[in-house]
Amino acid sequence: MADEKLYSNLSKLGFPIFEPNEDPDTNETLAEVVKSNDTRLWEGFPILLANAAENYQFSLGQVLQQLDNEEQKLLFHQLVLLSASVYSMYHLSFSWFNKLKKDFSDKDKKRIKTWRDNLVHRQALQEGDNQFDPERVTGLFELYFEQKVEKDRKRKEKFQEFSMEYALSQIFSPKQKELFKKKLEGDLLSKTEQEYYSRTVKKKVVALANSELHALSQKLLEQ
């Protein structure tokens, strides 16, 4: 996989420094990260793994199949343990990861605990020739979650906006909806608009504001 394609795929899996342009092959991308010999990417592996699994595309076996030798497979295992250490530090629990860690050995569990403590105390994480910077590991992960929270907030706001637009469209005609919004936002209505609002729109607004009508509507929806 060419570097440009790899970096593009990484962005689709949530690594914030790259721009996406196409859907990635998730397991191929994770395997290429292992092969990359790029510590920056390894330190972002907890993000990539969480995103891959969240999208139900991650397969441990498929990643292993695309690794060339035992050294790469050992490194992949270390990156999974690094991810577990990060999740443990932030008290995160994923159903997919709970299944995965059932196969961890006692040595693996000890390594996770040690690395979690290293992350908490900002001490380097060392395994053989590989060393991970705790500041970069946690910094990348926190940046990802900050961006995810903001993205989820905007998505929720957009959904609420669309939901409100749909609801208004079921009750008001386009012209009535326009006057409803203008009145709500305090915009000045012309004499003709004010008369039309008072004669037609306001009656619907009064009906919508009726608490008994609202309660009955909720009861009907629950049936």
Would you give an account of this structure?
The chain has 223 residues and is mostly helical. The protein is built from twelve helices and two strands; from the N terminus they run ααααααααββαααα. It has helices at 3-12, 26-35, 39-43, 45-54, 60-65, 70-89, 95-100, 106-120, 134-171, 174-184, 191-208, 211-222, and strands at residues 125-127, 130-132. Strand 1 and strand 2 form a beta hairpin. The longest helix is centred in the C-terminal third of the chain and has 38 residues, at 134-171. The radius of gyration is 26 Å and the shape is elongated. The chain starts with a helix and ends with a helix.
Quick rundown:
Helices cover 72% and strands 3% of the residues.
Order of H and E elements: HHHHHHHHEEHHHH
Largest sheet, in brief, is: 2 strands, antiparallel
* Main sheet: strand order: 1-2
Structural class: mainly alpha
What's the gyration radius in Å? Answer: 26 Å
Number of helices: 12
User: What sort of overall outline do the alpha carbons produce when their principal axes are compared?
Assistant: elongated
Number of strands: 2
Question: Strand content of the residues, in percent?
Answer: under 5%
Contiguous low-pLDDT stretches (5 residues minimum) are none
The helical percent reads over 70%
Average residue-wise pLDDT: 83
Gap between N and C termini, in Å?
A: 55 Å
